[in-house]
UniProtKB/TrEMBL annotation, chain A:
Phosphoprotein among keywords: yes
Organism of origin: Hibiscus sabdariffa (roselle)
Name of the protein in question: Two-component response regulator
CDD domains the record matches: REC_typeB_ARR-like (cd17584)
Region (Disordered): 204-231, 301-322
Function: Transcriptional activator that binds specific DNA sequence.
UniProtKB/TrEMBL annotation, chain B:
Protein name per UniProt: Histidine-containing phosphotransfer protein
Subcellular location: Cytoplasm, Cytosol; Nucleus
Gene3D superfamilies: HPT domain (1.20.120.160)
Major place of residence: cytoplasm
Comment field on protein domains: Histidine-containing phosphotransfer domain (HPt) contains an active histidine that mediates the phosphotransfer.
Domain HPt residues, every copy: 38-133
PANTHER family named among the record's database cross-references: PHOSPHORELAY INTERMEDIATE PROTEIN YPD1
Source species, domain of life: Eukaryota
Residues with Phosphohistidine modification: 79
Role noted for this protein: Functions as a two-component phosphorelay mediators between cytokinin sensor histidine kinases and response regulators (B-type ARRs). Plays an important role in propagating cytokinin signal transduction.
Listed SUPFAM superfamilies: Histidine-containing phosphotransfer domain, HPT domain (SSF47226)
Keywords assigned: Cytokinin signaling pathway, Phosphoprotein, Two-component regulatory system
């Protein structure tokens, strides 16, 4: 395990060079590769192969890192748990890495504020989670746990070059949020002047704190959204492990059922803490618990806060998280998703003037989004993925499928009142994955689309595009989804600005949601199941399906060139018995990305 | 040996590895990451991969020898192997891992054993191919030449 520490001061004018990244991955090969890639981006890299160690590093020097990239498949600690911890305790961006996962799901959930109790922090957090599996479920989890983005392995340099955007975006949105808040703020100040900026002491003294303060303001806005008029812009409270423990202790003492912000506040006996702080945290905590409950619940399907007699002590203890993270397919059964959508995935959050990050990202496009998103399952599909990584993920149908499993959980989480919830009923028929898979070649295309997505100004498709298309739920094809994504992306690429990740995430999520149906499978090799009836050494690769297809895809950005090489060459295997030619037939379809952009319009109509 | 000849040999050999899907684009990415600061980057990464893979293959063998096989554990190992093989672009190994995971899910012992054999076979194949490639590179460098892209 290689650990370098970069305790440099916050970024200066060289930004994004010097971005301080913490990479967590148990695979030494990937760790080395990522380290090299990040260094090439002129980032300051610290590597870690143990999640626990990463947490320690983060706790010790909270302001030493600007962004965390974490693998989700780690033996010592689930990457999601790490996300939770980071989210609860720190204010760092987290990016999830997934391999050929469904970006759709992640995007969607991430964009919705109500995703997780940590959303508050994680939204602004740039923690990247990585994963090599194609499970949508995992991607969803990542997002649920606050990942601000997810990358699919194999990760490309271009994707890493863009991670600074998360950090940057957060900052600029914070500024914007604050500015927009000023009017209201002044009013509130008059009303509750004593409650303002009482946690200044909790903020560090670094440059980043200014951003933090603004973020706090944003966070406080959450309170406002919650309907508490007196909670004006306050400096945000950093819920440290200790503080959270006090909180949990108080909650347990009072009794979860009878708990209330005032009571907790009194018990906690923390002078600088306000009722609003506690209320806000309590809400998140409740969501968090209910999510844990749901995940642990085979039956699932209860919305809102579920009372738990023994709520997890604190997020750091996290033992409960492990369970919670293992969403079971059972949860999907109820098939109703509640999407915390304010018409738009990511934008919704922004519309509410939530965390700057999200807001900034989508604020622009958001305004345009009005769509009856909520009910329209096809709506999400419209979402575009502005993220490069999404392109990768689009390719995996299985992730889409897995997404469904998150349904119940999402429901619980989205009961968060900050974000209007929309009940998604699975009105459509199960996605015909088989059909989808036949279209799988397209995912590969996504890879090639990457270059286009790389521009920082990636824009997320605003509402209009979404609303325009009334994707038909049944008979939905993965292919069309991807086309849509691409076309959407193409259309809005000019918009750029902070749009991007969260939005694209949302889009991705929606897409997966819409495409997934009840055919949830827990394996990342679902495609295999779908496409192959039996396995035999000879057919091993044939049955691989989507994932395999993805693997077959040239993974470079210059797909055109790769195509030529791999498409032709792969069929010349010395050992045809081993490698099925099925995936390679895809190479026979040279396509032009632009064609897809043009053609998708009608697909969802 | 003639330097030019060596270089051509290397290019041809490397191309064949791509053609036969022993390697994929990811390997190219690795090569692109290599620079003056890390002149042995690719070799180092690949060595890490070899170490990790052999460890995982041993674990897999052990796990599948158990009386009562813990498929989850087996799957976890395969998943890891799949991940690291994807990191260097060892496509065939990666694909064989995918198939392996399917059998794990089905808790099909025979299938798993067959897959393990297959994965191992693919691994050793790619290992020997890469070692041959590195050897060629070394020869070229020793002869004072540079490695053609």
């Amino acid at each position: 395990m290689v650990v370098e520490t970069g305790f440099s001061s916050p970024r200066t004018d060289a930004f994004p060079a010097g971005l301080r990244v913490l990479v967590v991955d148990d695979d030494p090969t990937w760790l080395k590769i990522l380290e090299k890639m990040l260094k090439k981006c002129f980032y300051e890299v610290t590597t870690c192969c143990l999640a626990r160690e990463a947490l320690n590093l983060l706790r010790q020097r909270k302001d030493s890192y600007d962004i965390v990239i974490s693998d989700v498949n780690m033996p010592d600690m689930d990457g999601f748990k790490l996300l939770e911890h980071v989210g609860l305790e720190m204010d760092l961006p987290v990016i999830s890495q997934f391999s050929m996962a469904n970006v759709v799901c992640s995007a969607f959930f991430y964009s919705s504020n109500s995703i997780e109790p940590l959303s508050h922090k994680l939204r602004l957090c740039n923690v990247a989670v990585m994963s090599v599996d194609g499970e949508t479920r995992r991607v969803m989890k990542g997002v649920q746990h606050g990942a601000c983005d997810y990358l699919l392995k194999p990760i490309r340099m271009k994707e890493l070059r863009n991670i600074w955007q998360h950090v940057f975006r957060k900052k600029i949105h914070e500024v914007r949020d604050i500015e927009s808040m000023e009017g209201i703020e002044s009013i509130h100040m008059a009303r509750s002047g004593s409650e303002l900026f009482d946690d200044g002491s909790f903020l560090g003294g670094e440059d980043t704190t200014s951003g933090r303060k603004r973020k706090d303001a944003d966070n406080k806005r959450d309170d406002k959204d919650l309907g508490d008029p007196s909670s004006t812009k306050k400096a945000r409270v950093v819920w440290t492990v200790d503080l959270h423990q006090k909180f949990v202790k108080a909650v347990n003492q009072i009794g979860y059922d009878k708990v209330g912000p005032k009571k907790i506040l009194d018990l906690m006996n923390v002078p600088w803490l306000t009722r609003e702080n506690v209320a806000s945290h309590l809400q998140k905590y409740r969501l968090y618990l209910s999510r844990l409950q749901k995940e642990g619940d085979v039956k699932n399907s209860f919305m809102g806060m579920k009372h738990s007699d023994t709520p997890p002590k604190d997020s750091t203890a996290g033992s409960g998280l492990r369970n919670s993270i293992n969403l079971t397919q059972d949860n999907v059964s109820n098939g109703s998703f509640s999407f915390p959508v304010n018409h738009t995935l990511a934008p919704s959050v922004d519309l509410k003037g939530h965390e700057g990050d999200r807001k900034g990202i989508t604020s622009g496009p958001m305004t345009e989004l009005k769509g009856p998103f909520s009910i329209d399952i096809s709506g999400p599909r419209k979402a575009k993925s502005s993220k490069i990584s999404f392109d990768h993920s689009l390719g995996s149908v299985d992730s889409v499928v897995n997404f469904a499993s998150f349904g119940p959980t999402d429901t619980a989480q989205y009961s968060w009142n900050e974000i209007p919830e929309i009940q998604f009923k699975q009105e459509y028929e199960p996605l015909q994955l088989e059909n989808g898979f036949s279209q799988l070649p397209l995912p590969g295309l996504q890879h090639h689309m990457l270059p286009e997505y790389l521009q920082p100004a990636v824009s997320v498709s605003p509402g209009p595009s979404i609303t325009e298309k009334e994707a038909t739920s049944s008979g939905f094809e993965v292919k069309s989804m991807y086309d849509e994504y691409r076309s959407n992306h193409a259309k809005h690429s000019s918009q750029t600005e902070a749009v991007g990740e969260s939005h694209s995430l949302n889009n991705q999520v929606f897409k997966s949601i819409s495409t997934t149906t009840s055919s949830m499978k827990s394996q990342d090799t679902i495609p295999n199941h779908l496409t192959v009836s039996e396995f035999s050494p000879k057919n091993l690769y044939e049955g691989v399906g989507a994932e395999d297809l993805q693997l077959c895809w040239p993974q470079g950005d210059c797909y055109a060139t790769n195509f030529g090489l791999q498409g032709l060459d792969c069929t010349e295997h010395n050992n045809p018995a081993i490698v099925s030619e099925t995936p390679f037939h895809l190479y026979d379809h040279p396509f032009d990305p632009t064609e897809y952009y043009a053609s998708d319009q009608g697909l969802f109509a | 040996m003639d330097l030019v000849k060596l270089q051509r040999q290397l290019v041809d050999y490397r191309d064949s590895l791509y053609h036969e899907c022993f390697l994929d684009e990811q390997f190219t990415q690795l090569q692109e990451l290599q620079d003056e600061n890390n002149p042995d980057f690719v070799v180092e990464v690949v060595s890490l991969f070899f170490e990790d893979s052999e460890r995982l293959l041993n674990e897999l063998t052990k796990a599948l020898e158990q009386q009562s096989i813990d498929f989850k554990r087996v799957d976890a190992h395969v998943h890891q192997l799949k991940g690291s093989s994807s990191s260097i672009g060892a496509q065939r190994v990666q694909k064989s891992c995918i198939a392996f995971r399917n059998y794990c899910e089905e808790q099909n012992v025979e299938g798993c054993l067959t897959c393990l054999q297959l994965v191992r076979q693919e691994y050793y194949l790619v290992k020997s191919k890469l070692e041959a490639l590195f050897k060629l590179e070394q020869q070229i460098l020793s002869a004072g030449g540079s490695i053609p892209i």
